[in-house]
Write a structure and sequence with these properties.
protein phosphatase, Rossmann fold, 5-stranded parallel beta sheet, nucleus, HAD_sf, Ubiquitin-like domain-containing CTD phosphatase 1, 33% helix, 4-stranded mixed beta sheet, 365 residues, alpha/beta, Ubiquitin-like (UB roll)
């Protein structure tokens, strides 16, 4: 048998090497757009991929986070070769990252207002909110919850209903005071409130605790299986995300986008309202949150607390509104007074119109 020449061996090795190399076309999803990275060598590493992404998007490699490019459950490091990752041509990769100019713009400290002068449209807290709810890294976390958080449905969405999301602790229930039973710590008018709201709203309970505690509290308060209304589902702390804000630092918040992403045909920013006693829980959805007065020291405040009674009226009045994002929920009490004033004025006008008119005076002869 004749041994192959060195040239033949060299050519065979080249062919084998070329056959082991394939090219990838990858789609990068960033900032609401798709960017194509074509003809990427599978022997390239993640760093090379990031450099190609930089050419398309202008986001520097060190700023990029490729959310679903993972190996062994972790985000793939820069030195990782693409052929060691289970990735196919046409794969869509979600990227989080910002351009240098955008980071510089967001880092600018707003000018101080003159002493005693109030900003017309935003206070400092709302200014922080406007930044947080649009940051891509936070939106990516919301999308992660939409994709991976499992909701245990208790009742189906009802067509045409708006959405009411409720906190538990200090909103519906005084969870710190001592009592012989949970009923003693229930906020006054709770069942009346939920029954009234259920007419126009699907109801979701979202608490920053474990699911077992949510289920236990709802059972103790006789909310879980109440015949007068139905709860659609519960959300616990696993559905929340962490965000960084200049005012609060790193905090956990309740992004309504998790629900909207799960039920895009039913709920959105135009028909959703959330009650919570902690305002920062609204940071991802500042226009959809209403800060309720906390219910504490139940034994002392039981007879005086009428918050849910008044909020029932507010929910009834705004159920007629097409777009909740145009409402300022901070002024909910003024909204009620204005609505009641209009009703009284209308009723007074109707009574006047219905009163018998005096007969016309007879003309003198």
């Amino acid at each position: 048998m004749i041994a192959p020449s060195l040239d033949t061996l060299s050519k065979n090795m080249e062919c084998e090497e070329q056959s082991s190399i394939s090219l990838l076309d990858i789609v990068i999803k960033w900032n609401g757009n798709d960017y194509d990275v074509k003809n990427l060598n599978t022997n390239s590493d993640v760093k090379t991929l990031k450099e190609e992404i930089f050419k398309c998007t202008g986001v520097r490699p060190e700023r990029q986070k490729l959310i679903n490019l993972r190996i062994s459950g972790k985000m793939a490091p820069d030195e990782c070769l693409l052929n060691t990752i289970n990735i196919k041509s046409g794969t869509k990769i979600m990227m989080v990252g910002s351009k240098e100019e955008d980071i510089a713009e967001a880092s600018v400290v707003p000018p101080k207002r003159e002493k005693g002068r109030k900003c017309k449209s935003y206070d400092s807290e709302e200014f922080d909110e406007e930044r947080v709810d649009k940051m891509e890294i936070h939106l990516a976390k919301v999308q992660n919850r939409v994709d991976n958080y499992e909701i245990k449905m208790l009742n189906d969405p009802r067509p045409g209903k708006k959405l009411l999301v409720l906190d538990i602790d200090y909103t519906l229930f005084d969870h710190r005071s001592a009592a012989e039973s949970g009923i003693e710590l229930m906020r006054p008018y709770l069942h009346d409130f939920l029954e009234s709201a259920y007419e126009h709203y699907d109801i979701v309970i979202w608490s920053a605790t474990d699911m077992r505690w949510i289920e236990r509290k709802m059972a103790v308060l006789n909310v879980a299986n109440n015949a007068a209304y139905k709860i659609m589902f519960y959300l616990d702390n696993a559905a929340m995300i962490t965000v960084h804000t200049p005012k609060y630092g790193v905090v956990s918040v309740k992004p309504l986008g998790v629900i909207w992403g799960k039920f895009p045909e039913n709920y959105n920013k135009h028909n959703t309202i959330m009650f919570d006693d902690i305002r920062r829980n609204f940071l991802m959805n500042p226009k959809n949150g209403l800060k309720i007065r906390p219910f504490r020291e139940a034994h002392l405040n039981w007879e005086m607390d009428k918050e849910l009674l008044h909020l029932s009226v507010y929910l009834y009045e705004i159920a007629k509104v097409d777009d909740f994002s145009k409402l300022n929920h901070r002024n909910w009490e003024k909204f009620i007074k204005k609505a009641q004033y209009k009703k009284e004025k209308r009723h007074k006008r109707d009574r006047t119109d219905n009163e018998p008119k005096p007969p016309d005076s007879q003309p003198k002869l």
